[in-house]
Amino acid sequence: MSTAILQSNNPIDVSSACSTYSLTPLQFETLHTRCAAAKATAYCPYSRFHVGASILTEDGAFIDGANVENAAFPVGTCAERVAFGKAITEGHRKFKAVGVATDISPPASPCGMCRQL
Q1: Model-wide pTM > 0.90
Q2: Domain containing 98: what range?
Q3: Fewer CB in a 10 Å sphere around the end CB: N or C, the chain?
Q4: Per annotation, catalytic residue among 29, 58, 69, 80
Q5: Which CATH number covers residue 103?
Q6: Which mean pLDDT values do the consecutive 10-residue runs of the chain (117 residues) have?
Q7: What are the C-alpha distances in Å from 48 to residues 32, 38, 58, 67, 102?
Q8: pLDDT at 115 (0 to 100)
Q9: 21 in any annotated domain
Q10: Residue of 87, 83, 79 whose CA lies nearest to 103
């Protein structure tokens, strides 16, 4: 899985991204909707920086996660790692795409650890 950040909702950009990463427009829209919804479930009382992620598995499942902070701030768990951990424990091993939603625009890029997943 390669990494790209799509910062536009322009239909031409979305169509190009779908073509490049072999996603249907519905899969892309579902990732977009689910990662935004997951962002609302983030537990981030220290940074107040909400992040949501949604993973599309090769078999078509969507697995969501949100960032979780703890009192040992800045130690916490990124939304992407929460979603991947959940996917792995549910038996998924092959992934097609990841969507990430943040509170800022343009969106924040995944951290180095999450890019290694």
Answers
A1: no
A2: 11-116
A3: N
A4: 80
A5: 3.40.140.10
A6: 59 81 91 95 95 96 97 89 97 94 85 84
A7: 21, 15, 33, 10, 11
A8: 83
A9: yes
A10: 79
